[in-house]
Amino acid sequence: MKARPRKRFLPLALCLLLAGCSDDAPQALGTLEYDRVALPAPVAERIVSIDVREGQRVEAGATLLTLERTRTEAQTQAALAQVLRQREALAELEAGPRREDIDQARANLNAAQAQARDASAYYARLQPLGQHQLVAAAEVDRARAAAGNAQAQVRAAQAALDELVHGTRAEQLAQGEAALQAAQAQAEAEQATLQKLDLVAPRAGRIDSIPYKLGDQAPVGAPLVVMLVGEAPHARVYVPEPIRADVAVGQRARVFVEGRAQALEGTVRMVRSEPTFTPYYALTGEDAARLSYLAEVQLAPGVDLPAGLPVRVEFAPAERRAEDTP
Predict the structure, then answer these.
(1) What is the CATH number of domain 12-67+206-321?
(2) What confidence tens digit (pLDDT) does each residue in 165-209 have?
(3) Which of 257, 265, 251 is nearest to 307 (CA)?
(4) Is the CB of residue 47 less than 8 Å from the CB of residue 218?
(5) What are the boundaries of each domain within the chain?
C-alpha cells in the first residue's frame, strides 16, 4: 500500500504568507501582539461605574472604572483613629507621670508606714505577755504576721513611688514609637487601597477587554480591565530549531503582515532559551524537528495595526547582520 500523504490544516492567511516566502532568508510564523497590562481588583467590592468601552483609546491617568467605597472608607477612618490613639499614648509616655500621681503614691507610702508602726508596736506589746502566757500564743502569732504584712506594704508603696519618680523607661518609649509606626503604616495601606478603588490607566493604550460588568463583584486579584499598551505592536513568532543559532537579540528582521504588501522593519527584542513544541500553524516545509523557540520582534513606532493578525518574519542573514551591527 502506498503511504497516504500527511495533511496539514493551515489557516488560509498563513498559506498565502507561505506562498511568498523566500528560500534564502530564515523565517518564522506567528501573530501580531501588543504588551498587555492587567489591572487587578484591589478589594472584593461591587463595580459602581464603568467609564470606558472595549477598543477605546485612553491616555495615562484616565479613569477606567470605580468600585464601591463604603467599606474601605470606614476601614481607613478606623486606621486613622488608631494612629491618633497611638500618638497620644506615646505623648503620655514621653510626658511621664503627673505630679498628682506622685503625690498620691507618696501619701500611700505614708499611710503604709503609719500602719506598719502601729502593727509593730502592737506586736511589741504582746510579745512579753505571750512569754508569760498571759495571752494566747495564737494572738501573738497574728500580731507578728500583721507587723510583717505592714512592712511588706511599706516596701510596695515605696517601689510604686520610685517607679513614678524615675519616669518612663526607654524600652516603653521604644514600644510606643513602634506601635505608632505600625498604626501609620496600616493607615497608609488603607489610604492606598482607597485610592485604587478608582482604577486609572497606568499608561496610554487601548482597552482590550473588561471581563466584569456593572454591578459585578470580582474577587481580589481578578483582572478588571486589560489594556494593550506600547507605541507599536510586536510580532510574536516561533523560531524553528534549525535556524535558532542564526537569530539573536538586536538582529534586524522584516515582518510581513497579512493584508499589507510592503514589509515592516523590526528588531528582535527577545528570544526564549527554553524550547517548546511548534504550534500547528507555524509548521512549514519539511519539519525535521518540531521544537521551536518563542521570539518577539519589535516594530518601529508609528505602526497602528490590530492585534492577532498573522505575520511572517524573515531574519537578516548572518553576513548582513554583521554589517548592520554598529
Answers:
(1) 2.40.30.170
(2) 877 788 888 999 999 999 999 999 999 999 999 999 999 999 999
(3) 257
(4) yes
(5) 12-67+206-321, 78-187
